[in-house]
Design a protein that fits this description.
Layout: H1 39-48, E1 64-65, H2 70-91, E2 108-109
Antiparallel strand pairs: 1-2
């Protein structure tokens, strides 16, 4: 997939995260109109050196799973929300977090 390294001329620390991505729908590598391919589908086909894959089809059912790193992240989220609540009590400001009632349920579809 397209990516490139870059030089850090300013020497300022940079952090990268690779969150899991869930597709709304599976790839379709055999579209009637080539203009309808997503950017990722185009890159896959270009890398393979073809314009379409007429025989391509999904072989298995999509499944949901929770990444094994999720439990550790949930603990960090809960601790951060508690710190936010304590700060809100001191400052009388509201807590703005989507996790205010606990970590949001999360699953990846493959």
């Amino acid at each position: 997939m397209p990516h490139s390294a870059s030089k850090n001329h300013l020497r300022v620390p940079r952090f990268i995260t690779n969150p899991p991505v869930t597709l709304k729908e599976p790839f379709n590598l055999n579209r009637e109109d080539p203009k309808d391919y997503s950017l990722v589908e185009q890159k896959i086909l270009n890398t393979l050196g073809v314009t379409s894959l007429p025989d391509w089809q999904i072989k298995a059912e999509r499944k949901r799973f929770t990444p094994r790193t999720r439990a550790g992240k949930d603990i960090l989220i809960m601790a951060e929300v508690e710190r936010m609540k304590a700060y809100a009590l001191k400052t009388r400001k509201p807590v703005d977090s989507m996790h205010i009632n606990g970590p949001v349920p999360y699953q990846v579809i493959v």
